Amino acid sequence: MLLLQFSTSHYCRKARLALGYKGISYQVQNLTPGLHLLKLKPMTGLTTVPVLVPQLDNQPSVIADSSRIFQFLDAYCPTPPLYFDDPQQQTQTLMLEDWLDESIGTATRFVYYQFRAGAGKQIDPSWSSQVVIQVVRRQYGIDQASAELATQRLKIAFEVLQVWQERPYLVGDRISVADLAAAALLSPLALIPDYRENYPWLFENITRIHQLCGEALPPGLSSQS
Ligand SMILES: N[C@@H](CCC(=O)N[C@@H](CS)C(=O)NCC(=O)O)C(=O)O
């Protein structure tokens, strides 16, 4: 299988966690932001990564969107499962995944790029890095006001995800889509000292899940854990 991705994208990290959890071998192709449109739009009709190219007979030729990639992987390789048979657990998992994808993954992006343009500028003050950060900020409308709203949304996320402090799984008694989505989509916060100080349990869980999936730790956790 081939995963088309941006190396720094937390949604692509989410897809890699699922591939790793399933033990599926795959290759990655890193696309260049900006030029990615030329490749992806004719292929999928969308402009976002991750995109999975299964390269398998009798399977779809291309799958766009991390949630659809999860569904494909679970059907293609049912063990270990990512979803639940129990309808209540399944509904809870799907709701958590959708909320993490649509609300929290976006909020993380806002808070992260606001930090990288301000207090976190020294992480990579190079001209090329700062240009990329400014392009992303403009693309998504990230500024002080929108980043503050995102910060509020993240506060709610930490309340919801607190169950991780009492037990290792967000739903049921095993890993699911919800755990992988949370571990990937909150991972950019590992570079922000306030979050590391205030929510150590979050980063312990992110580390644990990455290790379980055989995925390299995100920046901020790799050198310190
Ligand atoms: N809902 C999508 C979101 C993916 C997403 O937002 N990807 C970003 C990178 S983090 C992207 O490809 N942006 C480029 C663009 O929108 O053109 C998913 O889960 O796959």
From TrEMBL:
CDD domains, sorted: GST_N_family (cd00570)
Gene3D superfamilies with a match to the protein in the record: 1.20.1050.10, Glutaredoxin
Keywords: Transferase
GO process terms (BP): glutathione metabolic process; L-phenylalanine catabolic process
InterPro entries: Glutathione-S-Trfase_C-like, Glutathione-S-Trfase_C_sf, Glutathione_S-Trfase_N, GST_C, Thioredoxin-like_sf
Any matching Pfam family: GST_N_3
Superkingdom as given in the UniProt entry: Bacteria
Domain GST N-terminal: 1-81
UniProt domain GST C-terminal: residue ranges: 86-225
GO MF, one example: glutathione transferase activity
Keyword flag Methyltransferase: no
Name the record gives this protein: Glutathione S-transferase, C-terminal domain protein
